[in-house]
Amino acid sequence: MPTNIPAELDHPTFRLAVAQFDQAVQHMALDPNMLERLKSPQRALAVSVPVRMDDGRVEVFRGYRVQHDLSRGPTKGGIRYHPDVTLGEVSALAMWMTWKTALAGLPFGGAKGGVAVNPTCLTTGELERLTRRYIAEIFPFLGPDKDIPAPDVGTNAQTMAWIMDTYSQQVGFSVRDVVTGKPLSIGGSLGREEATGRGVVDITMEVLHYFHFDLSDTTVVIEGFGNVGSHAARILYEEGAKVIGISDRFGGLYNPKGLDIPAIITERKKEKPPLPSLTQFGESILHEDLLTLPCRVLIPAALAEQITSTNAPKIQCQFLIEGANGPTTLAADSILHDRGIMVIPDIVANAGGVIVSYFEWAQDAQRFSWEEAHIHSRLQSIITKAFNRILQQAEDKKITMRTAALIAGIEEVAMAHECRGLYP
Ligand code: GLU
Predict the structure, then answer these.
(1) pLDDT bucket at 1, cuts 50 / 70 / 90
(2) What is the pTM for the complete model shown?
């Protein structure tokens, strides 16, 4: 059990992030003074977001923006709209962004934001007003050289467009590089929307190649069919893998012969029917049964703490590739390790999103846009380099990929702190 968690940050996901950190630093000779500095966020802002609802009432939502570490550059990380958002959860996600950006060699520290709201219960007008007021409240934190938001669970390119507009209205001119994951017409990048899913696929291919497996005889199960899961499923299908199981918040869909992913995506575009209702493509299956299907690759691409000590003993994949942030609990991690299942941790596996966010930010600053093929190949080169470096370290030091990845990220950040010194 990790110690020294400030009461206001206490949350299962923050405890998980700190426990992972504590486990990794056992393998490092980190100065204890540094250790405490890296464990909790450098800055956190909690705001009230009053929104005029369509029926005339004013509802007040809780919002947060957390900047975990500013030592290596401006901070970067998504904004999440979900009813369970708390300061502790956002702080954990911000900490993971710090290690993720450091590991990929991006010139950012980690941040995350969120509003405790169920976006599916709000109208478009309500969502726009919520976004604009939330951004107005956290405005002093934001800026292209300060902190750059992006999409996360429950937000998308439209949300980012409202953010770009609200920020620009406040300063009086258009600022494209204050946010990433925007629509192309206001400085978004080609390839950004699918980037996290594409990065997961780049990693999957690299893992299979390293262990001499063919993608064409690889079965894949994906938990979550949002921005990460649906693009990963589509690209894996296009590359020739057999995607046998997918799920959304209503349950799963299973077909041992392989699901027709493009047809499912087309069907979902109409009225967004729940996946388990699409029985023309496969049989409906319970969420918990989906996670334990026999397959070569399991990709959790939904929320945190889905792989637990309860289902980890029953999981039947060879490789678990974390598309979501924090999908595996600490107890599940060690069960999977003992069972010989290789876990490719989130801070490597889902880094594709922030890598292409970095490209978007750089293109906006350069006033120059890159070709899509260039973006795909630069993404693949950065993410596979990070993966191979971590794999090598895990094998050399006989530690898990997660520990190796955390050590690499923490070392990078500690080095920045050391050479900058402690102010004042
Ligand atoms: N929300 C994404 C993540 O968790 C992307 C963050 C970004 O692009 O800044 O990595």
Answers:
(1) very low
(2) 0.97
